[in-house]
Amino acid sequence: MSASFTGECDDIAAECERRVVYISVESADERWKLLETNRTPPIIDLPPVKPSAIALGTVFNHTVSLAILAPVFGDTYNRAQAANSKEEFLKSKEAASAAAAWGSSLVGSAIQTYGVGALINATGTLSYKGAAYLGSLIFMASSAPSFVSQIFTEKRPMDTVAVGALARVFETVGLSLFLTWWGTRTNPFD
Questions:
Q1: What is the CB neighbour count within 10 angstroms for residue 72?
Q2: 77 or 122, higher pLDDT
Q3: Which of 55, 83, 150, 186 could form a disulfide with 48 if both were Cys (CB 3.0 to 4.6 A apart)?
Q4: Is 23's pLDDT higher than 90?
Q5: Between 158-169 and 51-82, two packed helices, what is the crossing angle to 10 degrees?
Q6: Contact present, 175 and 142 (Cβ < 8 Å)
Q7: Alpha-carbon distance 184 to 187, whole Å?
Q8: Nearest alpha carbon to residue 51 among 189, 176, 179, 181
Q9: Residue 101 pLDDT grade (very low, low, confident, very high; cuts 50, 70, 90)
Q10: What is the mean pLDDT of residues 142-165?
Q11: What angle do CA 52, 54, 60 make, to 5 degrees?
């Protein structure tokens, strides 16, 4: 048996013993003292990202998303022009679905921007090359499986899949490059 394996077993045994002792202690004061004597890992908050980076990244990402949704909004705009009045159009299902698509796209863009910015900060990415690698990894982890499924299982047309893939590349690789250019750290000296 190697020394590192034995050391890991000892660490696991000590952790189990600590938990058993903690559970068997009756009073809350004794539990608190026990917790103070043991080294518990600190609670890690969500990584901070510069608010201006989130705002500009959201606009960047939302613009890319709207490029995909442009046909939906184009049809909705034509129906609005054909409606007899503004009130009639605003009460229609088309207006409600367009507003829902726009709002969910905006919120999704903000969440994705924060996530990419937090990953940039957490990984310590400073170069454009590193940002491109990080964006590529995000693309491969989040979007590539659905494109493989669309091509081989669903047999969708290649032009449709290519447009979606290009948009996702902009939303991942492009966003990480843009955020690296703008800067995501709240304190650049950290």
A1: 15
A2: 122
A3: 186
A4: no
A5: 140
A6: no
A7: 9
A8: 179
A9: confident
A10: 89
A11: 100
Tokens describing residue 30? 């004794």
**Contact assessment for residue 54 and residue 110, using Cβ atoms and an 8 Å cutoff:** yes
- The yes-or-no verdict on residue 150 having pLDDT over 60 is yes
- 67, 37, 174: which is closest to 112 by C-alpha? 174
Cα end-to-end distance, the chain, whole Å: 42
Indicate the pLDDT class of residue 87, thresholds 50, 70 and 90: low
Q: How far apart are CA 177 and CA 182, in angstroms?
A: 9
Q: DSSP assignment of 70-126, as one string?
A: HHHHHHHHHHHHHSS-HHHHHTSHHHHHHHHHHHHHHHHHHHHHHHHHHHHHHHT--
Separation CA 138–CA 166 (nearest Å): 14
Tokens 């045994």 found at = 13
Residues in the chain: 190
Q: How far is CA 58 from the centre of its chain?
A: 12
* 142 close to 112: Cβ distance less than 8 angstroms: no
Nearest to 115, CA basis, from 74, 58, 169 = 58
The pLDDT, as a whole number, for residue 117 is 96
Q: Is the pLDDT of residue 186 over 50?
A: yes
Query: Is 11 or 26 the better-scoring residue by pLDDT?
Result: 11
